[in-house]
Amino acid sequence: MARRHSRLAGRGAEGESPSVVPHRILRAALGLIFAGWFSCGQSAGRAADSTALAEVFRRADELDARQEVAAALKLLEEANTKFPNHAEILIRLAKQQSNQIFIAKADAEKKRLAALCLATAERAVVADTNSARARLSVGICLAKNFPYVDNQTKVNYSRRLKEETERAIALDPKLDLAYHMLARWHFEVAEMNFILRGIAKLVYGGIPKGTLEDARVNFEKALALAPKRIIHRHQLAQTLLALRKKPDALAQLQHCLALTPADKDDAEAQQAAAKQLRELGVATESKGLAGGQ
Predict the structure, then answer these.
(1) Which of 3, 56, 64, 255 has the fewest CB atoms within 10 Å, i.e. the most exposed one?
(2) What is the pTM of this model?
């Protein structure tokens, strides 16, 4: 009996011989080592991707600030190939695609670019439905399409613009451009012609009410968050003119000329402000325009 017990004690788990046990331990140890190496490799890969993305965003934002549209577009198209369906890349790409509208000569090309930037912005929302910036990007790109679509599409896009902008504000109440777009919506609806109002009533039973006063309030909210953005002041000036507050509007237009454009939209707004002041008989001197903007 003692001899039998000794033989059983000398065997490994499930009756394995002593010589097999070290092999099992070795295999298990190697498995853990390989799993550790694989996990470390994944972590290192994610860290490398994160660093690469941060550099893409830094360079893209820098090029955008310098209004180097072609270079920014090339960078972001390459990044989109390497990191497909990344919301922040798509948001920036949509902006540069919309910036090309300023450069395009033919209306057909402008229309194509407006549709393209909207499609890219919509992909950003699919990539991250909770991104305030992606929602805002859709709203901005909807507005970029207004000059190139028929009246019924304008009404459809107007409703969507308001919805996407309000979602963006709900997700990030500090997003100045979201208040700007909501203000633009109120301004456009308040000034909407009877044809568009008729289409809205026929298709939707009407359109939500927009007022010039609500436009003013939201432009001022945008300015409070980003006082150096020229587009906020320029559009606030248009609202003040519509409200028959010409002295206040002129002050905002003149302030536009004292600021440095942050991007292509700001540069265009500054040029428009200078032109408008000249048409109103007011002498102009622009810091940005003097620098060749």
Answers:
(1) 3
(2) 0.78
pLDDT given at position 293: 34
Report the C-alpha gap between 158 and 152 in whole angstroms: 10
- pLDDT tens track for 44-74: 556 778 899 999 999 999 999 999 999 999 9
CA torsion, ordered 13, 18, 23, 28, to nearest 10 deg = 30
Residue 26's identity, in one-letter code, is L
Tokens for 184? Answer: 């633009």
Tokens standing for 151? 């009246």
- The full length of the chain comes to 293
At 209 the three-state DSSP class reads coil
The third-level CATH classification (topology) of the domain covering 60-147 is 1.25.40
Backbone phi, psi, residue 160, to 5°: -65, -40
In angstroms, the CA 9 to CA 229 distance is: 82
State the pLDDT at residue 48: 72
Asked whether 269 and 256 are in contact (CB, 8 A), the reply is yes
Which of 265, 254, 257 has its CA nearest to residue 290? 257
Q: Identity (one letter) of the amino acid at 285?
A: E
pLDDT score of 114 = 98
Specify the DSSP class assigned to residue 105. Answer: -
Listing DSSP states for 134-194 in one string gives HHHHHHHHHHHHGGGS-HHHHHHHHHHHHHHHHHHHHH-TT-HHHHHHHHHHHHHHHT--H
Residue 85's pLDDT is 95
The tokens for 271 are: 């040029």
CA-CA distance, 234 to 205, in Å (whole number)?
33
The residue ranking higher by pLDDT, 145 or 292, is 145
